[in-house]
Specification:
mainly beta; six-stranded mixed beta sheet; five-stranded antiparallel beta sheet; 5 helices; disordered N terminus
Length: 352
């Protein structure tokens, strides 16, 4: 009997050791999250660091229909608080957000509510990359992923529950140009300050961004223009979308209708003119020169303004056109003045 009990004790001890070893291995960061190489060039990054001013919490990714693209998520806590759980939702076109089945997760790290249980090595910082789906059809719309960290048990239906301040990242994925496609580049493009009679080369179209257009070009072209240049008493050197261009500067609709190539053609109306949205960028000339691929400009977020003012040499301007295409303008020279006395020279980089 003693021998039997002894063997049972030994067996229980072995089982206990085995369980402890198993639990210990699951607690390592490598076991919980298997990350793809985060140094790859074709990765879009959400980066949220507590207290930082250069966080990137909203990104847009484009890829080929029915494929995947890589999303990198880097969160870091600098204070005494610790991250306990990570939540990810996926919102398919026309549907409500649902918990996302994280593809690189070991079983033990997943809580019953579908969240990720961050272990000790990840409570202050984590950095991982994973594949997210691209819609199967360009007409389907976009897939939206939301990622947030909490100080304890959160709720997929409530991003504010135990949320760490500003720790929500959003990735919008759509069918579009390959993220590695080279940017369209334009150098030394010169636009004139506008003339009231329309004889100045003041507008461009992103369909042919290297060619400036004369305002008097007529109704056949005005609906293709995206933005133009003007100089104002207060705003100084400025850009405005064709739709946002003030008729007090030049009345594009009136001039277009006065210069129809076909007298019987329908009149141009204000709503025929393209909208485009601008914002002064915190990016530098060096940043501008370093961007080469479509994905490099995914950080740009559409503003509410169709004009941008007070432009000076080396200023960088972000823009989003009516189709969602993003781009940067680098101002290389400003000659202040109205009419024949003023002009602006610029470089551009545009998503294809």
């Amino acid at each position: 009997m003693k021998r039997i009990f002894k063997r049972k004790s030994e067996l229980l001890a072995l089982l206990f050791v085995g369980l402890m070893v198993g639990c210990g291995s699951d607690d390592s960061a490598t076991d919980i999250i298997e990350t793809i190489d985060p140094t790859s060039n074709d990765i879009t990054t959400i980066r949220i660091v507590e207290g930082a001013t250069d966080n990137i919490d909203t990104v847009t990714l484009n890829g080929e229909a029915n494929s995947t693209v890589k999303l990198r998520v880097n969160y870091k806590i600098t204070g005494t608080t610790e991250m306990k759980r990570l939540y990810i939702t996926q919102e398919l076109p026309g549907q409500s957000p649902m918990p996302f089945e994280f593809p690189l997760l070991k079983n033990r790290a997943k809580k019953r509510d579908g969240s990720i249980d961050l272990d000790k090595s990840n409570e202050k910082e984590f950095d991982f990359t994973f594949d997210v789906n691209v819609p199967s059809n360009p007409n389907d719309g976009q897939i939206v992923y939301k990622i947030w960290a909490t100080t304890g048990r959160g709720d997929f239906r409530d991003t504010s529950k135990r949320l760490l301040p500003t720790f929500i990242g959003t990735a919008t994925v759509g069918v579009g140009t390959n993220a590695n496609a080279p940017l369209v580049q334009v150098s030394s493009l010169k636009l004139d300050a506008p003339l009231a009679d329309g004889q100045s080369n003041s507008f461009i179209s992103l369909l042919d961004p290297s060619t400036p257009y004369q305002i008097k070009a007529g109704a056949g072209l005005v609906s293709f223009w995206d933005f133009g240049y003007f100089f104002g008493n207060t705003g100084k050197a400025s850009f405005a979308s064709a739709n946002g261009y003030s008729s007090l500067i030049v009345d594009l609709v009136k001039i277009a209708n006065e210069n129809k190539e076909d007298a019987d053609a329908a009149d141009v109306e204000k709503e025929d003119l393209n909208m485009m949205y601008f914002a002064k960028s915190t990016k530098t000339k060096a940043d501008f020169e370093g961007y080469t691929t479509s994905a490099d400009l995914d950080f740009i977020v559409k503003s509410d303004s169709q004009t941008v003012n007070q432009l000076t040499t080396d200023a960088v301007v972000e823009f989003v056109d009516k189709t969602g295409k993003k781009g940067l303008i680098l101002v290389t020279k400003v000659v202040e003045g109205f009419g024949n006395d003023g002009e602006i020279t610029l470089d551009m980089k545009i998503q294809p």
